[in-house]
Input
Amino acid sequence: MDDVLHNIELLISGRKSLLITSSGFVDRGLVNKVLSSTKNIIKVISDVKTHPDFNDIEPLYKIAYENNFEVIVALGGGSVIDVAKFISVSNKDKN
Output
């Protein structure tokens, strides 16, 4: 696990990062492990639901773009990854 956490820090490479995950990863302590391995996570969004629809994603999208992030880290399964992809490919002006 330490190697994976070290790799996250290398991939983030000092950039301001948004961590998208679900409450299960928070409950299991994995989010805290990620946060302790890097100082570059500026916001954690952990309310990703299973099989989210647009109404579930829209508030997460707004939270994401309230932060000036450069990189998205997705910690989770399909729904988390789908939300991260949605946020990453949006055309909303971040400024």
User: Anything to note?
Assistant: The helical segments are 2-12, 23-27, 30-37, 54-65, 78-88. The CA atoms of residues 20 and 45 lie 5 Å apart.
